[in-house]
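User: Can you predict the 3D structure for this chain?
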Amino acid sequence: LLLATEVQQNLLPKTEPSLPGLDIAGVSHYCDETGGDYYDYLEISKDPLGAAAVVVGDVSGHGAHAALLMASARAALRLRASLPGGPAEIISDVNRQFTADVGGSGAFMTLFYLAIDSTRAVVRWVRAGHDPAIWYDADSGRFEEFWGQGVPLGIDEDAVFEDRERRNLKSGGIIFIGTDGIWETAGPDGRLFGKDALRDLIRTTSERSARDITKAVVQALDAFRKGLKPSDDITMVVIKIL
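Assistant: Here is the predicted structure, written as C-alpha cells:
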C-alpha cells in the first residue's frame, strides 16, 4: 500500500500550468492510502495560443481498486488528448476504452473535462456524470453551474457526450471543479458541508490566489469534521481569471 501510495502520488501533477491570464491550483487528498479521485492538466495538441485542459474525475469507491482504474483512465486521457478532436470526441474515445477496462465489474468514473483558452477567454467542457463545475462572477457576485449531457465513463461504450461552451470570461471570475467528497463531508452531528457553504467560501476568498482558495476549502472541511476521519477522497481544481 505504501508503494501504491507513492506511485499514485507521482501520477498527480507536480506543478501548476503557467498560462497567460490564469491562476490555477489543484489538490487531492485520499481518505485511504490510495484513492479513485483524479485531476490533471492536459495540453491540447500543444496549442501555441495557450489552450489546455483541466480534468477532474472520481472512480466509484476508493482504495486500491479505484486507484488502478484511475491510472488506466489517466493514461487513456493523456494519449487521446494529444490527438486532434474536440472535447466530446476525446471523452467518447476514452469512454470506450474505459468501458472495456472495467468489463462487467460495475465500476464507473465520473469526469469533468474543461478546455480553457486563456488567450481567447473561452472555455469548452464535457460533463460525464460528474457534478457541474461552479462559475463565480466576481462583478455580479452570482454563481452559475456548467452543465451538459453525458453519463459516467464505463456504463455505456456508445454513450453520447455533449460539448458546451462559454465565452467572455471576466477578470476576477473563478471556475471551481471538485469531487463530491467536498460537499458530502459530514460533521459529528451527521450534517453535510453542502454546496451553499462551498459557494460562500468561494465568494469570501475570491480575491485570494487559486492556491489559497484550495487551502481555505481544505481547512474549512477539517474544521467541519472536528477531528473525524474523512470518509471519501477530496479533490478540487480552482481556475482564477486574472
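The mean pLDDT is 91. The two ends are 40 Å apart (CA to CA).
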